[in-house]
Structures are given as C-alpha cells and as structure tokens.
Amino acid sequence: MKRCLVVDDSRVIRRVASKIIQDLGFDVDEAENGRKALNALTIRMPDLILVDWDMPVMDGLEFAQQLRKLPGGNKVVVVFCTTENDIPHIRQALDAGADEYIMKPFDSEIVRSKLILLGLLG
Fold first, then answer.
1. Reported pTM
2. Counting CB atoms within 10 angstroms of each CB, which of 11, 67, 92, 122 has the fewest?
C-alpha cells in the first residue's frame, strides 16, 4: 500500500487531509512541522507528502529543499497545500522541490484529481 505523510501545523487540517488520503487508499502518517517530518523520513520514505507552506520550526519550503537532498528524497511526490496562491509563491514552491500545488481549502475531489495527474491514482 502507498504511504503519505501529511505535514501541517494545524491539527484540524492534518486530520481532514489524512481522512481524504486514507479514503483514496493510502496509509497516512502526520507531522506538525518540517523538522518532525524530516525525522519521520528517517524511518520510512513515503510515496507522497502533502505539506503546508507556513509552519513553525521549519516551513514547507525548507522542508522540501532538505527532503530533496536525502537518499530517495527525489522520488517522493511533494504537493504543497497552502493559502499562498500568487504566481511568485507557486514558482518558489516548485523551485524548492514541489511537484504540484493545492490551494486551501481543498476537498477530496481536488486531491484525487491532483493525484491522478501525478500518476499516484488510476
């Protein structure tokens, strides 16, 4: 079964995203910031990471940059989930290593369509 790591400082967002991803057939782990997410990656690298931009301790941009430096980190699909929606922010996320970008608030259909686009769902 495919694995997903949901990284967001909001417990509510983590729970909502986790439910959506579980319903799409993934096992899900959660982390409340980029530092805890990096620590989780030392145990097991997921297939997919949904990551928030603005978090304490380590934000999504720094997390994505660090992830891409790890062994196997270049194979993980990274989707930023954030309220930042202007072109410079999107470009910055893509430059940091994001594969795709989802605007908050999001729902299961938006997530599903992005995962189909990324080849993670049939």
1. 0.95
2. 122
CB-based burial of residue 11 (10 Å sphere; 0-12 exposed, 13-18 middle, 19+ buried)?
A: exposed
Summarize pLDDT for 49-101 with one digit per residue, the tens.
Answer: 999 999 999 999 999 999 999 999 999 999 999 888 889 988 999 999 999 99
Q: Is residue 22 part of a domain?
A: yes
Looking up residue 23, the CATH number of its domain turns out to be: 3.40.50.2300
In the chain, the number of structural domains is 1
What lies within 8 Å, CB to CB, of 30 at 6+ separation is 5, 6, 7, 8, 14, 18
**Chain centre to alpha carbon of residue 115:** 11
User: Binning pLDDT at 50, 70 and 90, where does residue 20 land?
Assistant: very high
Instruction: Supply the range of the domain harboring residue 25.
Output: 3-117
Q: Do the strands 77-82 and 27-31 form a parallel or antiparallel pair, or are they unpaired? A: unpaired
3-class SS of residue 52: coil
Task: State the sign of the Cα–Cα–Cα–Cα dihedral 64, 35, 73, 48.
Answer: negative
